[in-house]
Amino acid sequence: FEIGDKGSVLIVADGMGGENAGEIAAEIAVQSIKAFIQAEVKKEAPQAPNKILESAIIYAHNCIKDACRDNADYIGMGTTVTVCILQKEIFRTYPREAMRAVCLSCAGRTR
Asked: Is 74 helix (H, G, I), strand (E, B) or coil?
């Protein structure tokens, strides 16, 4: 999605196969990261891009944990996620190693 003149954001989330509701965890991750970044870039003094990415991942993790608390069918769900911000010639990813993904689940966040 576009973030105006600030660039574009790419999000790849893949629900963990064999886990409960992995596709739901992936959808929660994408939607919560998108909402967080869109809100952050509208601020008069947004965080630095790398901090926005890290904070967006933490926010997504908390949204997934909240969903697990609210619905017993979601307990154990998880997803991997990688987020990139493209700004002119600058390509920022979280995690910083573009080929790695962060694993978000009810149990905890791992790399």
From this structure: helix
